[in-house]
User: Which sequence fits this backbone?
């Protein structure tokens, strides 16, 4: 019974996701078109150009067609995976994105890993020693993580660890000279950005872990286990963790949008050559196809992440599906 | 049906593995060769701030492309330290008595990077077809009446009217020679693959382009100059963040930081550091200025413009916006071309810094109701800082300034096409001669041509003086015309010259052979690493 | 937690930012206005005051508000007026917190920046709350296709990455204070809407509402008297967090150089500081501290309000 319900649920979710994605694409398109500044002037450059040349450029990029025709073409191309051509780099947007994606993934996953470990630890400690100064301490840390602007944290880390102490590099993802670096050589560059990016997420996970653990802790099930004589640690590991984890996992999944947004800021502060940095550059150059391509990519990632989290939650939450 | 626990563990494990995999995969770049065995190949690393939009100099005027292209391509001449033309692809040249005909003898045994021979056909094709739409080349190509090939190594240019800077515009920066065979008959020029893998005659040939990271140029072993190039490769490293460029040159991670890539405000972080040399030489003078739109009721009044001129603290802008790498404006032409400067008509005399007097003058002229907008390119930090200082200065004399940073293309559209602005900040390069780059500041422009005088200033006498200055070959004579024009322009001050940019190129001290010509970017065949 | 229905209640999960769920009716429900409310007011303060951090934060916020209002009086020089004393460290005579690259006084800029941050923060929260309450009430009170459409729209806005979208919109359409407020408000209302809708739905089916209906009370009065006060507590909490979020978003946008250059803002100060991290650490530290302290205070006040207004759900 449970199984068919889950399948039906997943399918329903998928169906919901499709119009959402299409809506995102259309919003993208509207944004590009509504913005001031003619992309053609960007293409032409600095000096006077003949009207003939301008018309030629316009036709080449399909900018002379009526709006609904352009929209339809846009939708079709997106469906094919063609996100257009970068105005400033004359390369397919999709290629540019795929080139920069691994760096962002590397940074985001590392930050996520740090945040999960640190957050769960903080939350567990807080829950375990609830009401004591230790609890207040961990709560304070999570609250801070929540309130501090990520990019400022990045700046601070640079000032302290790179400028004053000189322990870590000031920015970039790899040394300037040379190529084919080992994993170890690249590590120092990853440390500060990943830590800065993980802060907010650590706070989120920490809070959720603590709340969830306390919730579970006071349930009958746990009381029963305790009365059977199990020690605190045994209770914790065998029962609490398993039952407290679903909300934590869902928090991680549903807040993926925040970590992507955060990576935009962090990549800018640290000159990390990923998607976030590409977004900043494309904004500076008014490279519309790249800007909207990135918006699309991030939006779809968030939709997918939500979908996945829905599914995972449905599978692991013991309460879901019972009615 | 997997148990809840399994799914949970699986989810967490996937994340962990993903992180490890991404790290392990590494992004150290593919294709680099770890050098084994004998002498390490000599490589010079030059900093740039982003990918060029194209490596076809006929299609782009961007700095990023220029820096790469002038090492791959060549022009008929190059300019030495005094700015005099020296042979490059042309070995000698003759000018006719009426200054209308230039005959060049071309160098023999020059090969393109693909092995084919360089001939006069390439020159003619470049000028007539490949460069004709290019902004930088426009200035000189529009003056050419005809190009005739006398024989495979002799080519003749006939001009429509005498044009004093003609010879110095035959350098690679303005009119590089491209390979005809690569482009002719190969379809649309814009989509030709040579635009991303250029074929030239220069000391370096194209190696590799890793988008977003670097461009590598390899030694041209068949280069026509003996013993050049001295190094094996050049690497253009893309560092988008200005601060990181500063960090990189100080730390020795890069060898050369070109002037245009230097954030001037941070020059103090570089000067005095060990093993770093700051070379201050201004190859090509450039002016930074504030245009005042006379369509605005207040700015149409000369008294208001003069008061503004006396209120703007130019020395402070030089110190705070340019880190001292500039000279405060003195008059219509700045100081870049001393022979053209009129010492009697000088801002120091006409518009001495006097906010108190300026304030009374403004009030006497009726004040400025509603304030003025100051429009500028948001992406240029010098303008951002200068705009703030100007806002501060003008608030002291009772004029409220509203800052309007705009993106480049929107800026150009608003200021030049629509003339929807009050005051705007802009900079123009002279490109080597006032006749090339500076005339457009003051020429009458009723037709709204982009990047030409949008202030509404129109003075027939000035127009005539400038036309004469462009035609006469003798520098002293030309100078007289410029000085006369300056007197008229300074009195009306339609555009306030803020400062002359001083260029500072930075290099590590172990790099030699730099700065042999008036421009630091070319002649890299002579560069060596100690 | 209430047991979710087979139609998986995402409301709960999406409220992950708060340790709170769909509210359960609390306390004595009296249809007569008056006495319980007054008691509730004093009660509320008493409960709030139990949390020292919350009270301290409230005090700090009031201080910042005062600073913002009195900025003109407590500055040491007009924020935009610089001078030759550029990049001076804190403690330089006349410049308590140092100066920036244009000689502008950091302290003066800091106090003026408070104005922008608070203005943006509260405007956005107000606008977002208003929109959210309207949408949520409509969706909750009229189930069926209105509900579905409105909820799909709110889900759409919640999916779009807020900061990225704001960046792109402001970058495309230009940076002005008003524009920024509008953009951020439009992206902030979904959370309030969800909560209001949830609250409305729950309360709507409660017995006492049926009783009120039977007794002849018009729908509007029901909403106003019975439903809203019960979701009010949550709205207030979310609103306080909205202020915090808005301040952070404005700071982020300004940090990208997309802020309004005619106003001093903390984020803008951080943007300018980016070029001087090596030489002038104070340009980055003070504005950041300001932002962090205000946002922290808002979060603590929000938590405190949450504990005070929803005591049943407070952790034991």
Assistant:
């Amino acid at each position: 019974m449970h199984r068919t319900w889950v399948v039906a649920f997943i399918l329903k979710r998928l169906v919901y996701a499709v119009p959402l994605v299409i809506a995102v694409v259309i919003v993208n398109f509207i944004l590009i078109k509504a913005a001031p500044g003619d992309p053609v002037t960007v293409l032409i450059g600095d000096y006077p150009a003949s009207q003939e040349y301008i018309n030629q450029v316009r036709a080449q990029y399909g900018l002379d067609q009526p709006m609904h025709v352009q929209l339809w073409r846009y939708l079709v191309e997106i469906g094919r995976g063609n996100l257009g051509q970068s105005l400033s780099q004359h390369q397919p947007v999709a290629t540019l994105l795929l080139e920069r994606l691994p760096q962002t993934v590397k940074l985001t996953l590392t930050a996520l890993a740090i945040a999960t470990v640190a957050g769960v630890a903080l939350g567990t400690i807080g829950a375990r020693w609830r009401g004591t100064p230790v609890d207040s301490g961990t709560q304070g840390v999570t609250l801070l993580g929540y309130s501090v602007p990520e990019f400022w944290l990045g700046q601070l880390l640079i000032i302290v660890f790179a400028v004053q102490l000189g322990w870590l590099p000031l920015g970039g993802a790899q040394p300037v000279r040379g190529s084919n670096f080992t994993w170890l050589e690249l590590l120092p560059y990853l440390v500060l950005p990943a830590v800065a990016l993980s802060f907010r997420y650590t706070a989120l996970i920490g809070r959720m872990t603590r709340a969830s653990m306390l919730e579970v802790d006071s349930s009958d099930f746990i009381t029963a286990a305790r009365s059977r004589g199990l020690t605190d640690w045994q209770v914790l590991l065998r029962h609490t963790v398993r039952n407290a984890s679903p909300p934590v996992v869902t928090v991680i999944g549903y807040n993926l949008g925040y970590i992507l947004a955060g990576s935009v800021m962090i990549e800018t502060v640290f000159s990390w050559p990923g998607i976030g940095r590409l977004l900043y550059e494309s904004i500076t150059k008014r490279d519309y196809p790249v800007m909207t391509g990135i918006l699309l990519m991030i939006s779809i990632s968030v939709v997918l992440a939500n979908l996945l989290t829905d599914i995972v939650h449905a599978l692991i939450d013991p309460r879901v599906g019972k009615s | 049906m997997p148990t809840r626990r399994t799914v949970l563990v699986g989810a967490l494990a996937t994340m962990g593995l993903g992180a490890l995999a991404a790290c392990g995969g590494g992004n150290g770049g593919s294709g680099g060769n770890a050098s084994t065995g004998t002498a390490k190949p000599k490589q010079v690393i030059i900093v740039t701030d982003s990918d060029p939009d194209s490596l076809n100099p006929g299609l782009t005027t961007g700095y990023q492309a220029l820096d790469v292209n002038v090492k791959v391509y060549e022009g008929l001449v190059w300019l030495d330290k005094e700015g005099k033309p020296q042979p490059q692809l042309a070995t000698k040249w003759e000018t006719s008595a009426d200054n209308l005909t230039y005959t060049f003898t071309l160098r023999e045994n020059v090969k393109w990077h693909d092995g084919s021979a360089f001939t006069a056909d390439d020159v003619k094709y470049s000028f007539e077809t490949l460069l004709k739409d290019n902004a930088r080349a426009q200035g000189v190509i529009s003056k050419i009446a005809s190009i005739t090939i006398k024989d495979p190594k002799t080519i003749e240019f006939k001009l429509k009217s005498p044009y004093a800077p003609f010879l110095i515009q035959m350098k690679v920066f303005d009119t590089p020679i491209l390979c005809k065979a690569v482009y002719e008959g190969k379809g649309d020029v814009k989509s030709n693959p040579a635009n991303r893998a250029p074929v030239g005659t220069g000391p370096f040939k194209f190696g590799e382009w890793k988008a977003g990271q670097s461009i590598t140029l390899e030694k041209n072993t068949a280069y026509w100059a003996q013993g050049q190039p001295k190094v094996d490769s050049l690497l253009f490293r893309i560092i988008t963040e200005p601060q990181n460029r500063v960090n990189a040159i100080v730390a020795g991670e890069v060898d050369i930081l070109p002037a245009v890539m230097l954030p001037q405000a941070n020059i103090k972080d570089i000067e005095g550091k060990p093993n770093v040399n700051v070379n201050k030489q201004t190859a090509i003078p450039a002016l930074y200025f504030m245009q005042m739109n006379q369509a605005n009721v207040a700015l149409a009044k000369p008294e208001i413009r003069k008061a503004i001129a006396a209120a703007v603290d130019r020395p402070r802008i030089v110190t705070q916006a340019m880190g001292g790498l500039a000279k405060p404006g003195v008059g219509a032409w700045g100081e870049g071309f001393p022979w053209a400067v009129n010492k009697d008509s000088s801002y120091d005399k006409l518009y001495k810094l006097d906010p108190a007097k300026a304030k009374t003058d403004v009030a006497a002229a009726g004040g400025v109701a509603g304030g003025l907008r100051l429009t500028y390119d948001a992406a240029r930090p010098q303008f951002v800082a200068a705009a703030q200082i100007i806002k501060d200065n003008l608030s002291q004399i009772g004029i409220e300034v509203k800052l309007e940073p705009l993106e480049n293309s929107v800026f150009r559209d608003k200021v030049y096409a629509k003339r929807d602005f009050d005051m705007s900040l802009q900079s123009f390069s002279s490109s080597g001669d006032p006749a090339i780059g500076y005339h457009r500041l003051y020429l009458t422009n009723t037709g709204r041509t982009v990047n030409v005088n949008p202030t509404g200033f129109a003075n027939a006498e000035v127009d005539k003086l400038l036309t004469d200055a462009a035609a006469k070959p003798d520098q002293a004579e030309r100078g007289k015309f410029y000085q006369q024009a300056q007197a008229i322009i300074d009195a009306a001050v339609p555009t306030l010259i803020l400062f002359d940019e001083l260029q500072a190129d930075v290099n590590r001290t172990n790099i030699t052979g730099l700065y042999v010509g008036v421009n630091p970017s070319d002649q890299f065949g002579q560069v060596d690493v100690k | 937690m209430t047991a979710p229905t087979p139609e998986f209640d995402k409301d709960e999960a999406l409220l992950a930012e708060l340790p709170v769920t769909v509210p359960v009716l609390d306390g004595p429900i009296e249809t007569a206005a008056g006495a319980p409310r007054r008691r509730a007011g004093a009660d509320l303060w008493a409960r709030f005051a139990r949390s020292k951090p919350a009270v301290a934060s409230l005090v700090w916020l009031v201080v910042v508000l005062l600073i913002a209002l009195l900025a003109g009086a407590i500055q040491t020089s007009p924020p935009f007026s610089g001078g030759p004393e550029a990049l001076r460290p804190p403690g330089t005579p006349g410049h308590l917190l140092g100066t920036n690259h244009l000689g502008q006084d950091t302290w003066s800029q800091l106090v003026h920046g408070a104005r922008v941050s608070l203005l943006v923060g509260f405007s956005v929260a107000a606008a977002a709350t208003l929109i959210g309450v309207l949408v949520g009430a409509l969706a909750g009170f009229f189930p069926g296709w209105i509900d579905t459409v409105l909820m799909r729209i709110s889900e759409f806005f919640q999916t779009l990455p807020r900061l990225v979208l704001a960046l792109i919109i402001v970058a495309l359409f230009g940076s002005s204070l008003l524009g920024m407020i509008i953009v951020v408000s439009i992206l902030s209302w979904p959370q309030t809407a969800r909560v209001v809708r949830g609250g409305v739905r729950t309360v709507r089916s409660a017995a006492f509402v049926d009783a009120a209906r039977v007794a002849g009370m018009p729908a509007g009065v029901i909403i106003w008297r019975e439903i809203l006060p019960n979701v009010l507590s949550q709205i207030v909490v979310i609103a306080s967090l909205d202020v915090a979020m808005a301040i952070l978003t404005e700071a982020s946008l300004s940090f990208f150089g997309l802020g309004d250059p005619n106003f001093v803002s903390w984020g803008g100060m951080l943007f300018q500081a980016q070029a001087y991290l090596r030489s002038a650490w104070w340009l980055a530290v003070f504005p950041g501290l300001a932002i962090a302290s205000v946002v922290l205070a808002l979060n603590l006040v929000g938590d405190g309000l949450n504990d005070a207004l929803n005591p049943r759900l407070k952790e034991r």
